[in-house]
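Input/output pair, single chain:
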Amino acid sequence: NGESALRDMQQQKVDMAYICSVFYVLAHDRHGYSPVAGSVENGKRQEKGVIVVRDNSDIKELRDIQGQGLALGSRYCATSNLLPRLMLKQAGVKEEDLFTIDITGHNRSAILSVMSGFHDAAGVTESAADEYKNKGLRYIAVSPPSPNFVFVVKSSFPPELKDNIKAILTGMSRRSADDSGVLNSIGKNFTGFEPVDDREYN
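Output:
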């Protein structure tokens, strides 16, 4: 889980990791990890968070979520936790105004919880919600973009090996059958990887 991963990074037990933008900021600022390459999904290096409800829900805007149950996809990541929380705060909805707010641990779990009626709304990553859009689910809010997942290495990682891994990752292409197989194993919407700079996460 997240806490154990950060503990391992603190102790420099993790040589290389593939983590979300929030974890990256913590790993970089606290433990000296640096970025290698960032993921590209649907041709984009950034992702948005969305708040979704059932098509037949009486919830029309964010303020209507007061007194309702909210599911979140992740405890840490920006698009399925921090950005949905921020959108609610900006709309004047306090967390104590919600009937419940639950972390499901995964975007799909939060979405299915809404569709099955266990929760009234969910804060999830847009690419995860897209699959269910117009299939019983609708958006009521979309956040500004946030950087996608990123490969990182610890500060003592050999620079030459880091450069080689970066070249392999950023050289992957959907035009290659072998590369497509690898990318598909990560996600069907994965386009590849691009070089990243720490300033993207400021």
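Helices lie at 2-10, 21-31, 78-90, 107-115, 126-130, 159-170, 177-186. The longest helix spans residues 78-90.
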